[in-house]
Write a structure and sequence with these properties.
With 88 residues, this protein is mainly α. The protein has a domain of 61 residues. The protein contains 3 helices and no strands. Helix 2 crosses helix 3.
Amino acid sequence: MRNTIKHRKKQQVKRKYKSKRLGGGGPRESEAAVPYLIRERLNATSLRSHNQTFSEPGIVLQILEDIRRAELETQRIALEERLRPLRL
């Protein structure tokens, strides 16, 4: 078994391209998919419960705003937790 630096680098590059090829994606791609996923989930629930498709696009936007607000709140709390030991 080869354990040279050159061999390890080659293996890392193979892993990197394989993960990209399999659709690892980045954060921007996953952010763009969130409204679609929310809409699909609401539509599936509405079909299951009421036998009709979901047709209120305003709710999806409201959910996205709530998600962003919650993310900002968790970031603020995490920052306060990190700074708390410094405030002795």
